């Protein structure tokens, strides 16, 4: 379809701006990476870190930072394979697959020199499920670790969680039922340890800045506060595997404008600059251009209830109209241009596969909600008749990341141009503020994303169960809930039947109910210093790992 002239003009101005910024830089060679004799790289982040407390982290920015300075029982290697971290070997599992016994390595230490013990995991996990903590990610324990759901509901004490320290180096975990993905789940930041004595001594000051934390991962953190736009990581001399860490220091700075990122890269002040839109198109033939598809899925989130009252999105035809009217192909090519791909479901491609046939989940379940302007307009006509309204105004929540602003403008244009009588008011807030408004469900329409916590379709589908703490849109379907419960319980040891149930659940969520409007699977385009190697992206868990980075 054709865009409005105003939108085309905006794109042309953006392209002109991109050329001016890119041409204004200096020498693009990276010979002066470090003048101190130490190996140092300069990286960027898209937003400030919302939280360094592993009990409170909920987003990709926080998870990447935590993954850099903390380590769990296991970690993901360069190929997303689970490897022993604080654990010295794979777990011993009983015959019915509900009890995991995990031996810890003797040389795992915190940055203050104290050993990492089994009690550090017991303490951390109990705090997460304790209702007093109000940890958003407590949900990841529910239905997995024994008694977690009852503890978070206030029906049992945290001490009754299915985890105990047999001794300082032996941890025993008891599950509610077999969990096929539990081994990989143990790599996730929410399962990281915390040193009880240190955390309790810090009290409310724990993790408020880098001086009020101790670390057990590859790096320690320096110069960070809760509002920092720059900080650094330094090699952790107490890390058990410090011999494999090549870098001495990583400098991080928050850069929200891709033009600024390109400028800093071309002047040698960044070793990797993330690109989108016109910058990605302009640089895609450069020798140092790189692009990859990750497993984050972006979608429009419809809030069906606000302040206890039904919203316009309680109407199914409204949801279906918006979900089918956006030209996603044009969107990823024009606005993003970073390797992102349109998606017509929730579970991404190249992420998880049929346990028998090995077919990709996304390919097997097909396209569930496709672009069809004529059909969208039919849905919209029915919706207005049902609502008794000719003119409708919707507030669209987005954040201050540059790509988010451009996405919001594109979507606003698509909706207002093609759905008669619709007015979209964009509300732009800081990244952390958007997360808070999502948490309190204070929005109507929102551009949101979800990244997988572990390698299984349920990490996406479980978000929209009625009782999920992340279901912040008041979507509820008993049939959907029933299927996910079956997948987590009676079918846990029946891989093929479980797979088919999850396929069916996604069809209910997207094709039948259109609880959300899937937009695209995220691509990451960047300019990267050819002298830097070992920058690792993950398909699930923390988005990035820095521990294998090296620079010549």
TrEMBL record:
Residues 1-21 form the signal peptide. InterPro entries: Peptide/Ni-bd, SBP_5, SBP_5_dom. The keyword Secreted does not apply. It is found in: Cell envelope. Its main location: other. Pfam families: SBP_bac_5. Keywords: Signal, Transport. Residues 81-469 form the Solute-binding protein family domain. SUPFAM superfamilies: Periplasmic binding protein-like II. The keyword Transmembrane helix does not apply. CDD domains: PBP2_OppA. Belongs to the bacterial solute-binding protein 5 family. PANTHER family: PERIPLASMIC BINDING COMPONENT OF ABC TRANSPORTER, PERIPLASMIC OLIGOPEPTIDE-BINDING PROTEIN-RELATED. This is Peptide ABC transporter substrate-binding protein. It comes from Listeria newyorkensis.
């Amino acid at each position: 379809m054709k865009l409005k002239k105003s939108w085309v003009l905006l794109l042309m101005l953006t392209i002109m701006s991109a050329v001016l910024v890119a041409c204004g830089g200096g020498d693009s060679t990276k010979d002066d990476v470090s003048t101190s004799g130490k190996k140092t790289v300069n990286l960027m982040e898209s937003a400030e870190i919302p939280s360094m407390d592993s009990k409170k982290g909920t987003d990709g920015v926080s998870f990447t930072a935590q993954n850099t300075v903390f380590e769990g029982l296991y970690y993901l290697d360069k190929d997303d394979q689970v490897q022993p971290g604080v654990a010295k070997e794979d777990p011993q599992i009983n015959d019915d697959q509900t009890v995991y016994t995990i031996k810890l390595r003797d040389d795992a230490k915190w940055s203050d020199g104290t050993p990492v013990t089994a009690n550090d995991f017991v303490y951390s996990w109990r705090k997460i499920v304790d209702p007093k903590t109000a940890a958003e990610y407590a949900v990841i324990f529910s239905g997995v670790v024994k008694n977690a759901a009852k503890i978070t509901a206030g029906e049992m004490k945290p001490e009754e969680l299915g985890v105990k320290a047999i001794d300082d180096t032996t941890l025993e975990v008891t599950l509610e039922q077999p969990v096929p993905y539990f081994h990989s789940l143990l790599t996730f930041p929410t399962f990281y340890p915390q040193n009880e004595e240190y955390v309790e001594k810090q009290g409310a000051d724990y993790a408020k800045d880098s001086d009020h934390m101790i670390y057990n991962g590859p790096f320690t953190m320096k110069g960070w506060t809760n509002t920092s736009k720059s900080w650094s990581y330094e090699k952790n001399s107490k890390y058990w595997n410090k011999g494999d860490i090549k870098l001495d220091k990583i400098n991080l700075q928050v850069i929200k404008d891709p033009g600024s990122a390109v400028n800093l890269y071309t002047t040698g002040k960044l070793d990797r600059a993330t690109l989108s839109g016109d910058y990605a198109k302009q640089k895609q033939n450069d020798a140092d251009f790189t692009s990859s598809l990750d497993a984050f899925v972006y979608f429009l989130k419809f809030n069906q209830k606000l302040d206890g009252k039904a919203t316009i999105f309680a109407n199914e035809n409204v949801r279906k109209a918006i979900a089918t009217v956006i030209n996603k192909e044009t969107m990823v090519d024009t606005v993003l241009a970073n390797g992102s791909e349109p998606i017509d479901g929730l579970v991404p491609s190249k992420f998880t596969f049929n346990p028998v046939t090995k077919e990709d989940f996304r390919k097997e379940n097909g396209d569930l909600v496709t672009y069809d302007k004529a059909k969208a307009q039919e849905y919209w006509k029915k919706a207005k008749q049902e609502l008794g309204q000719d003119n409708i105004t919707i507030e669209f929540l987005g954040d201050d990341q540059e790509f988010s602003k451009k996405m919001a403008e594109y979507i606003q244009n698509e909706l207002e141009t093609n759905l008669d009588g619709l007015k979209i008011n964009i509300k732009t807030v800081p990244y952390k503020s958007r997360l808070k408004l999502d948490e309190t469900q204070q929005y109507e329409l929102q551009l949101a994303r979800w990244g997988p916590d572990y390698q299984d379709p349920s990490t996406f589908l479980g978000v929209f169960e009625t009782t999920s703490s992340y279901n912040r849109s008041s979507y509820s379907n008993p049939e959907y809930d029933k299927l996910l419960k079956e997948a987590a319980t009676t079918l846990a040891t029946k891989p093929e039947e479980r797979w088919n149930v999850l396929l069916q659940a996604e069809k209910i969520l997207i094709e039948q109910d259109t609880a959300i409007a899937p937009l695209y699977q995220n691509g990451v385009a960047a300019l990267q210093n050819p002298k830097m190697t070992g920058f690792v992206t993950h398909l699930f868990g923390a988005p990035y790992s820095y521990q294998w980075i090296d620079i010549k």
